[in-house]
Amino acid sequence: MRFGLFFFILFAISCTYNELTPIPVCNSDNPSFSICIKPIIDNNCVSCHSSSVHGDLTDYASIKQYIDSEELLDRIQRDENEVGFMPLGGSRLNQQQIDLLIKWKNNGAPNN
Ligand code: HEC
What we know:
By secondary structure, this protein is mainly alpha-helical. It has a single domain, classed as Cytochrome Bc1 Complex, Chain D, domain 2, CATH 1.10.760. It has helices at about 1-20, 35-45, 60-70, 70-75, 95-105. The termini are far apart. The mean pLDDT is about 90.
């Protein structure tokens, strides 16, 4: 009877775990566009870059274009008070975010 209860609890716990939606984890060796890159751009850039006026950064193709041209990485690595610094009027992305963007570019900026 004790064993029965033990297995029932084990079963119940494993069911609960199975129902949890896995949280996507950003792998810094192979940064995924959708998990790592897009959220950085969405949260820091798209408020101003949602049209072609200052450069569209809303989708993979446009982000890749600015990554390939080096323009994006150049702008985010300038000093905060340097002309052309991005995000304009904001504070520098943290080093981890900058490193992810560099790594993604070096991996060929895949749409993954
Ligand atoms: C507060 C508004 C604002 C935010 C936020 C912002 N930008 Fe900009 N961005 C601008 C404006 C205005 C320009 C045009 C002036 C210039 O080139 O410096 C620009 C220009 C650029 C350009 C050059 C576009 C071109 O076609 O020459 C790039 C690349 C860029 N931004 C990247 C970014 C990135 C990456 C982020 C987020 C980390 C970001 N920006 C956040 C306003 C913003």
